[in-house]
Each structure stands twice: as C-alpha cells, then as structure tokens.
Prior knowledge:
The protein is an all-alpha fold. The protein is about 70% helix and about 0% strand. It is globular and about 60 Å long.
Amino acid sequence: MINFQKAxxxxxxxxxxxxxxxxxxxxxxxxxxxxxxxxxxxxKDLSFPDSGWQKRITIMGGINAFLGVLGWYWVFGWLLIxxxxxxxxxxxEQVWFALCISLCLVGSVIMIAADAQKYYTLRIKRGLITDxxxxxxxxxxxxxxxMIYGSFALMVWHWLPLLVLAWVWIGVFAVNMVHKxxxxxxxxxxxxxxxxxxxxxxxxx
Length: 205
C-alpha cells in the first residue's frame, strides 16, 4: 500500500495539473518534489527494504492505512494545484521555492543515508548503531522524513497539511521513536550513547 501511494503520486499530481489546467511554477515544483520523492522511496525499497514494512495485511488494513494517513498526503497536492489553497508566501516566491527544494533534497539524503546505514550494518552485526548519522542523533531517518514532508507543507502553505503532519508526527513518528528507544535501551552501551547524542535535532532536541 505504501509503494502504491508512492508510485502513484507522480501520476496523480500530473493528472491534477492537467485536470485543473494549472500550469503555474508552484504546481510543477510541487510535482517535482513530491513525485520525485515517491520514485526515491521506490528505489530505496528495492535496494534496501525496511523489514518493518514487509508484512502482509488485510484488504481492510490497507484501505485504513490509505485513508488514515497515506491518502492525506495526496490532499496536499490537490490543495495547491486545484487552487483551493492560494498561498501568499512570507518570502519572495523564488526564494520560498529554493527553501522548499533544499529542505526536501537534504531531508531525502538524510533519510536514505540513515536507512542504508541501518540496513547494511545490521546485515553484518546486530546491535546498537552509534556511528555515521546515528552518532549525532538517534532517529535520523525520521528527521529526514519530517524535512521532506515539511517541505511539501511549506509549498502548499495551508493549515490542513500542518494538521495532518502534526497527527502523523505525534501519533505515529513520536510513538515509534519511543518504542525504538525502549528497544535500544536493552544494550549495555545505551546509557552512554543516549548522553552523547540528541533525540532528533543536534544541539536542539
């Protein structure tokens, strides 16, 4: 279901641009950001899949996953491309686009690097990962994802994406990170690692 949503994003946004006749720079930048991220995710999943997502679910479970979270990400693009959201950015448009593109690109690199490090390290040695990106923060993959989807919300500049992200980040991401920390705490080096690393943002939190 996740891969269906990721693979379909580029086509869905392209359809919206055609359907609404929106040929604006903002619409095409958004398609490039969100659509390309879907392709990046698929390449990552083919190269080093997350075992946590490799589980069979029921048809209703898949529908609930799409309606509860994944489908709402498509609403972001609809808001912008349909014209329902007519954003007035706090900075000049070209500066704002550069900010969103940079945030998405850097977030993608952080997410990919963190997931690749986790996948290939654990294939060789099980245990606590405390080097690379994990040397500084304990959940770099979540930081990358938050930067990526944060860039989409900034492009749309509407209250609804912020509400959706608040739900996902607090109701899903934060819960998963708490569970992950509880799991990591079983390792003897955990206490020292926790003292010298940050939860999500180096120097801040």
